[in-house]
Amino acid sequence: MRMSDLLERLRGRGWRMTAQRRVVAEVLNGDHVHLTADEVHARAVVRLPEISRATVYNTLGELVSLGEVLEVATDKRAKRYDPNAHRPHHHLVCAQCGAIKDVHPDGNPLADLPDSERFGFTVSNVEVTYRGLCPNCAAAA
Amino acid sequence: MRMSDLLERLRGRGWRMTAQRRVVAEVLNGDHVHLTADEVHARAVVRLPEISRATVYNTLGELVSLGEVLEVATDKRAKRYDPNAHRPHHHLVCAQCGAIKDVHPDGNPLADLPDSERFGFTVSNVEVTYRGLCPNCAAAA
DNA sequence: ATCCTACAATAGACTTTGTCTAAGTCAATC
DNA sequence: GATTGACTTAGACAAAGTCTATTGTAGGAT
Ligand SMILES: [Mn+2]
Ligand SMILES: [Mn+2]
Ligand SMILES: [Zn+2]
Ligand SMILES: [Zn+2]
């Protein structure tokens, strides 16, 4: 997905285009991107010094509502924002440095939950987080 | 695991026993228990009105370090504390009311992550979170 | 049983992450 | 280029968690 595609799609949905929104969308572009709101703000400020924290939060929230960005909670601190919203995937996290990779496991984990373990729930979604050490951190250990 | 077992084990590890620590451990006793620090504090206060927030946080942190309690991040807000640390399990969460159940899926999700999707990481652990609606919330919908 | 002291508990300041509001600004349309 | 409703802003507020200086006490020593 190129950035211009995202911006086009947003404009088509009636999104009013502003310098702030463009910069937030641009900062989120790329693969394996999982930034916190503060990280997005820090990078946005480089291009647009007057952008406010509130606008970054507002814009991220709107991108999530529109289904263009996902919220992920791989660490137990700040939420992270993931532009890879159109291809289902899971996450692989380095326990040491926090690096996050998008991964696509085999099989369907939903099928692995037997009825006897569903407590009558209607189960619709699964998130899988793999944890370990990235090559750098494993070498340093 | 009975509560007295936990308290014995902690004492055996040189844990100084205090009224506060006993109450925190007691509040966490049970199945499918996944309380936030504030919830633990609220319940502890009933038995020991003068217990402080800081002590609850300290005690929970120590129980986690000792491996007797797990931190769980099933929602994107406060951490939850899980006394079921000795039996590996995953979680089933109601998207509506937040109810959390311990579940034991079939198979080993670690085996489902092919080498080509490991990015050179040493993968040691997996967390799976199933989401859906509990019977109550499904009936209300 | 009492004393001692290292460890634990407390109140409250502080930090981080996130939300909200009132007032000012501007993108899109006319 | 004027209009206007949506967007942005600064800063107050809130929730979750951490840290520190002070006071209290569990458990061993006497
Ligand atoms: Mn991702
Ligand atoms: Mn659990
Ligand atoms: Zn690493
Ligand atoms: Zn429910």
Description:
Two copies of one chain form a homodimer. With 141 residues, chain A is α+β, with helices and mostly antiparallel strands. Chain A has two domains: 3-82, Winged helix-like DNA-binding domain superfamily/Winged helix DNA-binding domain (Arc Repressor Mutant, subunit A), CATH 1.10.10; 90-140, 2-Layer Sandwich (Dna Ligase, domain 1), CATH 3.30.1490.190. Chain A is 35% helix and 21% strand. Chain A has five helices and six strands, in the order H-H-E-H-H-E-E-E-E-E-H. In chain A, the strands form two sheets. Chain A has a three-stranded antiparallel sheet. A three-stranded mixed sheet of chain A has the order 5-4-6. In chain A, a hairpin with a 5-residue loop joins strand 4 and strand 5 (100-103). In chain A, helix 3 (37-47) crosses helix 4 (53-65). Chain A is globular, with a radius of gyration of 17 Å. The interface between A and B is large, with 39 and 39 residues. Strand 6 (122-133) of chain A pairs antiparallel with strand 6 (122-133) of chain B, so a sheet runs across the interface. Chain A binds a DNA duplex (30 and 30 nucleotides) through residues 16-18, 20-21, 36-38, 50-55, 57-58, 77-79.
